[in-house]
Amino acid sequence: MDSDQSVVDPAVTATADDIAAMRIRGAATIADAAAAALATQAERSDAATPAAFERDLRAGARELYETRPTAVSLPNALRYVLRGMEGETVSALRSSTIDAAETFRAELEQAQSKLGEIGANRLRDGDVVMTHCHSTDALACIEAALESGTAVEAIIKETRPRKQGHITAQRLRELGVPVTLIVDNAARRYLDETDHVLVGADSIAADGSVINKIGTSGLAVNARERGVPVMVAAQTIKLHPDTMTGQTVAIEMRAETEVLSADERTAIGGDADEMPPLRVENPAFDVTPPRYVDAIVTERGQFPPESIVTLMRELFGETTAEPWDG
Ligand SMILES: O=P(O)(O)OC[C@H]1O[C@H](OP(=O)(O)O)[C@H](O)[C@@H]1O
Questions:
Q1: pLDDT tens by residue, 20-76
Q2: Residue 50 CA, ligand 1 centroid: distance in Å
Q3: Distance from Cα 289 to the centre of ligand 1, integer Å
């Protein structure tokens, strides 16, 4: 039987759509949702043979994989679950896959709280933290600091074009943190009042480069110039194994309409024949070189970015073919 006959459960397709449209967003949340979707596929699959079951799972994983290209937590989650799919019968394959997904999701949650405790050690009572975008790993550090009685304040960058800074503002206010919301262009001015820049990551490369929301690299360069340390909170599922063999991380380009509405496009000349063409580019992420990062905080400890490759080798070893390509 060929792969055309695979059956992907509608719930997997719905999760893939939600990830692509960013109704589910943030690297850790995407990984969690993808693992949950594979568990649902395993539960609901009515494949008659082990081969058909495995084919359906791989097809579901491929559909999830193809949604967003930059956050490596997504393929890392899919790999973990598919590598846990073991057994000679459909029933054994089903239960091992569901178990692998549950274990992955539990470890994800534990890793984030452990990371939070480690990151909180870098924060002192009264510190002002500047954030970019919305990262649950970064917020875990602040939450752990608050739990241990360390009060902090936050300066939150709006984070155009999708304004995920608003989510960070809401979450931190719910935790009782005083918040100052600024537009992205004001960041350098407010670095004078900042003790730490704290961001998350979508992928970390073997050389210690941090791939995170567009604008992170400019913020980090400015922070270095002002002497403000840059702390990256990233669970080890953000480590990108393929970069150990020199592969670069794909930067997702998103829709023009996130930047410029159809009405705005018309207002500045639209596509009128007498006007030169207008191109809008909307990269979702950028790359911050390791020299602008002071520490990468993971659940395994905090690392200078240049030494992260040691942890990557320990966790991933040699890279192999993707399980959904089988
Ligand atoms: O895993 P956590 O720390 O929650 O988020 C990590 C990163 O994911 C987000 O990407 P997007 O908003 O999905 O494009 C941001 O870039 C954020 O820093």
A1: 999 999 999 999 999 999 999 999 999 999 999 999 999 999 999 999 999 999 999
A2: 36
A3: 18
Residues recognised as catalytic = 133, 202
> Which residues lie with the beta carbon below 6 Å from any ligand 1 atom?
25-29, 133, 135-138, 164, 199-200, 202, 212-213, 284
User: Quick check: ipTM above 0.95?
Assistant: yes
Is 277 within a domain? no
- The Cα–Cα gap between 17 and 11 comes to 10
CA proximity to 196, closest of 119, 125, 130: 130
* Nearest CA, atom 2, ligand 1: 135
Determine whether the annotation assigns residue 60 to a binding site: no
Nearest to 95 by CA among 34, 36, 43: 43
- Residue 173, token pair as written in the block: 């206010």
How far is residue 280's CA from residue 258's CA, in Å, rounded to a whole number? 10
Q: Is 79 annotated as contributing to ligand binding?
A: no
Annotated binding-site residue? 163: no
Tell which of 87, 113, 139 closes a domain: 113
**Cα–Cα distances in angstroms (integers) from residue 294 to residues 51, 288, 324, in the given order:** 48, 12, 36
Domain around 122 = 115-249+283-316
Give residue 135 CA to ligand 1 midpoint distance, Å. Answer: 5
Same structural domain, 139 and 44: no
Alpha carbon dihedral 181, 184, 185, 190, in 10-degree steps, equals: 50
